[in-house]
Design goal:
- This protein is of the alpha/beta class and 470 residues long.
- It folds into three domains: 2-134, no CATH class; 142-249, NAD(P)-binding Rossmann-like Domain (Rossmann fold, 3-Layer(aba) Sandwich), CATH 3.40.50; 273-466, no CATH class.
- It is 52% helix and 9% strand.
- The protein has 17 helices and eight strands.
- The strands form three sheets. It has a four-stranded parallel β-sheet with strand order 2-1-3-4. A two-stranded antiparallel sheet has the order 5-6.
- α14 links the parallel β7 and β8 (416-418).
- It comes from Alteromonas aquimaris.
- InterPro entries: Bact_transf, EPS_sugar_tfrase, Sugar_tfrase_EpsB_2.
């Protein structure tokens, strides 16, 4: 597992360094061309280096902010192009602002920055195209085999069908083990018929296998412990299927969990005491910061909702609803009203993607999450955090606790305005969807940290920019 993380880190570092060199080179070439065609005068190399360096650093930081250097970025090429435009566009704004404010003497010709930005965008798009299509950064991929070809192993085939899902490893195939349920097992993947005995080491060496994933349906009496022990001594990673899926997909496969795995894992309670101690202060500070920038939009939204139907129906522009919070404690969540006043005249219902109960303005404010802004009040009251599982209604929680295993564990942390599940599985309108979202929520509960919170916060900004999610 550590070796795989190093390989992923290596690929990310290569990508960052390569793009930094490309950005800097295109900045230099842009100035050279503008000077050659007499559009801008030539400047001292020191001045050019400062400007190109500032632009390069700004683009790298903005690219990191919109997720362009994530090792598991699941995005279409069109989505990558959008991210490149956003990151370079933001960099243009920041460099222009900083140059005019603090480094007026280092200002380049007015045509330099727009021309450099255009050439850099084209270069990065072309580079990412060939990187994605030809797998130029596939160097150092972990070569793995899966021990098992039955029902448990089939979760890899079902959940990780696309090439982008396997960007961190090269799957050689599945090795059947006695006791596997082959009827509900692997269908389309490569099956490797090799005996897992004392000669298995030779197969591992001949195929440069770096990791063995244990995914057999029955372990007792079928798992070759001595052989796996020898593999581990020789430096081959031996990983449980649950740990493998958790690492590669950012979720915990709840329906495959078993008690011993939970016992030997790091549990679902935070061990970061400093983070817990500063929790309210950090969330209140963030809420204050966001409120300073968003209060005009909140005021405008309230006015539009009132003009749209609040004036006619005499209904509040805000919507309060009981939700389940930390340790199962109930609280009232506050949102801008995005549905009709009679939306729940027939009782509580799941919200759906194209819900006909949503008002005209409601579609817009839900798409860009403006309806969530009043929850800053819940943050100030200590009922919610910025990052955490989205709070659910008690009517639904009561049902989900009965039907979804480990569902109550998501209440070990404060609910949040944004969460890991919302970034990876936007809509939840059934028990089945709640099961899928729980896999990501439990991953967050298990791995909660300041760095993960920052990652979720940055990607949530991306969701707002591109109008994704809900």
């Amino acid at each position: 597992m550590a070796l795989n993380r190093r390989n992923q880190s290596k690929r990310s570092n290569i990508l960052v360094i390569t793009e930094a060199l490309l950005i800097a080179y295109m900045g230099y070439i842009t100035h050279f061309i503008l000077a050659q065609i007499n559009i801008s005068p030539s400047v001292p190399i020191e001045k050019l280096m400062v400007n190109v360096g500032m632009l390069t650093i700004a683009i790298l930081i903005c690219s990191l902010s919109v997720g362009l250097y994530e090792t598991k970025l699941r995005e279409t090429f069109r989505g990558i192009i959008r991210r490149i435009f956003v990151s370079v566009g933001l960099s243009y704004f920041f460099v222009e602002l900083i140059s005019r404010t603090f480094f007026d003497a280092l200002m380049m010709h007015p045509y330099f920055l727009p021309a450099a930005v255009c050439t850099i965008i084209i270069t990065l798009v072309v580079f990412r195209y060939f990187t994605n299509r030809l797998g130029l950064l596939g160097l150092g991929k972990m070569r793995i085999v899966v021990l098992g070809a039955g029902e448990r192993a089939s979760i890899i085939e079902k959940r990780m069908r696309r090439d982008v899902d396997r960007i961190g490893f090269e799957l050689l195939g599945f090795i059947p083990i006695p006791g596997d349920n082959r009827e509900d097992g692997i269908r389309k993947e490569k099956i490797i018929h090799v005996k897992v005995d004392e000669n298995f080491q030779q197969f591992i060496a001949d195929n440069d296998v770096e990791e063995i994933v244990i995914a057999c349906d029955q372990r007792r009496g079928t798992l070759p412990i001595d052989v796996l022990f020898e593999c581990r001594l020789r430096g081959v990673e031996v990983t449980d299927l649950l740990d493998f899926m958790e690492r590669e997909t950012g979720q915990i496969v709840v329906n495959l969990m078993y008690p011993s795995w939970v016992i030997y894992s790091n549990g679902f309670q935070s061990q970061n005491y400093l983070r817990d101690a500063l929790d309210y202060f950090l969330n209140a500070f963030l809420a204050t910061f966001v409120l300073l920038f968003t209060w005009p939009f909140m005021l405008l939204t309230a006015l539009i909702i009132w003009l749209d139907d609040g004036r006619r129906t005499r209904t509040s522009v805000f919507y309060k609803q009981e939700r389940v919070g930390l340790n199962g404690k109930l609280f009232n969540i506050i949102k801008f009203r995005s549905m009709r006043p009679d939306a729940e005249k027939d009782g509580a219902k799941w919200a759906s993607k194209n819900d006909d109960r949503v008002t005209r303005i409601g579609h817009f404010i839900r798409k860009y999450r403006v309806d969530e802004l009043p929850q800053l009040i819940n943050v100030f009251k200590g009922e919610m955090a910025f990052i955490g599982p989205r709070p659910e209604r008690p009517e639904f929680v009561e049902k989900l606790v009965r039907e979804v295993p480990y569902y109550n564990q998501r209440h070990n942390v404060k609910p949040g305005l944004a969460g890991w599940a919302q970034l990876n599985y936007p809509y939840g309108a059934s028990v089945e969807d709640s099961m899928e979202k729980l896999k990501f929520d439990l991953y967050y509960v298990k791995h909660q940290s300041m760095l993960l919170d920052i990652l979720i916060l940055i990607r949530t900004v991306e969701v707002v920019l591109f109008g994704k999610g809900r």
